[in-house]
Amino acid sequence: MARNTDNSTDNDARYELNQDSTSAGKGRPTPTRKEKEEARKRPLVSNDRAEARRQSRAVLATEREKQRIGMANGVEKYMPARDRGVQRRYVRDYIDARTSIGEFLIPVMVIVLIATVVPSPEVQVGAFGLLWLFFIAAVIDCVIVGLIIRKKLAAKFGADKVEAGLRWYAAMRALQLRLMRLPKPQVKRRQYPS
Hints:
With 194 residues, the chain is mainly α.
């Protein structure tokens, strides 16, 4: 080991640094333990319980609104567990880009409901027949889109890394009206994910 022959200059530099750091001070006396404990003490329950309840409700309402807006806009941290992940985002974008038969199921049901008011039995039977045909077509469309989704996910992420339940997730999203989907669609029609 080599020795430093210039020890005196190093010690002087350290001493000067220490002198500068202590000469500034913090500008106030150190609080005592008693003062610190008194500062930390606060009541667990406010004296004005109605005001405390109002404040907690306001805080919860703003937090819920922030979560609702974040989830609707597709922010990952605000989404429920069933909507999180890269593969589920891909499925949502694919379903939102295509026009599914199932998304028109609710309007067709409303039309059939109105048709049942008509006193003619032929119109009522025809409306129910139309509803059943439309329902069968929507189910077939969901099965087809599930197969397409599975193939696309296997090509993009690898066949062994595809999450379970994504075909059902795609089918449930395809059966909803586009306006009622949550999280809201992030892509336009025919803007398929790559």
